[in-house]
């Protein structure tokens, strides 16, 4: 399939958010719903699932390098990651939908990205017993990262000021719904679906090499220590920020003057935005919303 340039994507102002099966969404992720719902997964597919801004691009690139890094050097340096790892539910005008791009992927395995909460994932992934890599990130850093992303990304709803955004985040009114439901829903799934690896952004920051090794063992890859070390270096924040495969610099609807896509890549950056009062309120809401799940996040390392 001839893939048009992202420059051809047509955006007419920021989208509205609406309720879709109990989850806040925009038309960019629901317009192709019949095809998403009926997507035919394969047993060797690898689904990369995250709440937005939890480290999707990072883990996508790690998997891309693990599988295709040494084999396909030219491809590796020319095609951005969002072409190599289709975003399943995405649907933008003048651009192939994520489902279509995934259908047309020639690679094996196919790496496919989704931000869907677990209950909306096409059922064929479960039927085919496809492997799933989920990445969770602590709510505070995730919220801050999402706020800056919505500021600079014109295909996202207008975030308002930080206080407004944070209130909406606590209410679960962001695109792809509630962070609380997302991370705990996927955590519950892991208890019954053994082909799911649940990673934490904070662990990846603490020791990327260890998490790459964990990924290899989950995927049954016998990647050498030397190769793993090379990959670990190549996926460092500074490298990915310079790398046009991963830095999203050519996406026309992202305004890097407002905020870069590869922004800070830290644990604890939430302290730069949360006031003491906001932090106290957030902790209360957090306790309430997370009282029925055992998943635990670190807001500092
Ligand atoms: P910040 O905005 O906090 O910097 P996603 O890929 O899901 O959209 O997530 C983006 C977030 O992951 C951004 O967080 C981005 O900087 C961070 N990120 C991307 N690559 C990273 C890397 N190699 N190391 C650390 N953080 C990374």
Secondary structure blueprint with pairings:
Elements: E1 18-20, E2 23-25, H1 33-37, E3 46-50, H2 56-68, H3 73-78, H4 81-84, H5 98-103, E4 111-114, H6 124-127, E5 131-136, H7 139-152, H8 162-171, H9 179-192, E6 196-200, H10 201-206, H11 208-219, H12 225-234, H13 237-242, H14 276-289
Parallel strand pairs: 3-4, 3-5, 5-6
Antiparallel strand pairs: 1-2
Helix pairs in contact: 11-12
The chain binds adenosine-3'-5'-diphosphate (A3P).
Adenosine-3'-5'-diphosphate binds at residues 50, 52-58, 141, 145, 148, 235-237, 240, 262-265, 269.
Q: What would your notes on this structure say?
A:
This protein is an alpha/beta fold and 301 residues long. The chain has one domain (23-289): P-loop containing nucleotide triphosphate hydrolases (Rossmann fold, 3-Layer(aba) Sandwich), CATH 3.40.50.300. It has 14 helices and six strands. It has helices at 33-37, 56-68, 73-78, 81-84, 98-103, 124-127, 139-152, 162-171, 179-192, 201-206, 208-219, 225-234, 237-242, 276-289, and strands at residues 18-20, 23-25, 46-50, 111-114, 131-136, 196-200. The strands form two sheets. The chain has a four-stranded parallel sheet with strand order 4-3-5-6, with helices on both faces. Strands 1-2 form a two-stranded antiparallel ribbon. Strand 1 and strand 2 (23-25) form a beta hairpin. Helix 11 (208-219) crosses helix 12 (225-234). It is globular and about 50 Å long. The N and C termini lie far apart (44 Å). The protein binds adenosine-3'-5'-diphosphate. Adenosine-3'-5'-diphosphate binds at residues 50, 52-58, 141, 145, 148, 235-237, 240, 262-265, 269. Adenosine-3'-5'-diphosphate (A3P) binds next to helix 2, helix 7 and helix 13.
């Amino acid at each position: 399939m001839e893939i048009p340039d992202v420059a051809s994507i047509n955006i007419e102002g920021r989208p509205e958010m609406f309720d879709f099966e109990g989850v806040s969404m925009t038309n960019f992720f629901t317009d192709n719903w019949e095809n998403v719902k009926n997507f035919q997964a394969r047993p060797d597919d690898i689904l990369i699932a995250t709440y937005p801004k939890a480290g999707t691009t990072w883990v996508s690139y790690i998997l891309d390098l693990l599988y295709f890094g040494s084999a396909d050097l030219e491809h590796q340096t020319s095609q951005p990651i969002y072409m190599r790892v289709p975003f399943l539910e995405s649907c933008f005008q003048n651009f192939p939908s994520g489902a279509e791009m995934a259908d047309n992927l020639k690679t094996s395995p196919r790496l496919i990205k989704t931000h869907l909460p677990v209950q909306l994932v096409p059922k064929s992934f479960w039927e085919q017993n496809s492997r799933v890599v989920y990445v969770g990130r602590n709510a505070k850093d995730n919220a801050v990262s999402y706020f800056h992303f919505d500021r600079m990304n014109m295909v996202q709803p207008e975030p308002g000021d930080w206080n407004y955004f944070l209130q909406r985040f606590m209410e679960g009114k962001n695109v792809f719904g509630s962070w609380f439901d997302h991370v705990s829903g996927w955590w519950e799934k892991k208890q019954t679906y053994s082909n799911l690896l649940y990673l934490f952004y904070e662990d990846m920051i603490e020791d990327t090499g260890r998490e790459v090794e964990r990924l290899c063992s989950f995927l049954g890859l016998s990647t050498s220590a030397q190769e793993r070390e090379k990959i670990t270096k190549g996926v460092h924040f500074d490298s990915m920020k310079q790398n046009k495969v991963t830095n999203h610099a050519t996406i026309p609807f992202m305004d890097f003057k407002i905020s870069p896509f590869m922004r800070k890549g830290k644990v604890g950056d939430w302290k730069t935005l949360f006031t003491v009062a906001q932090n106290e309120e957030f902790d209360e809401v957090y306790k309430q919303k997370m009282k029925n799940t055992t998943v635990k996040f670190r807001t500092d390392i």
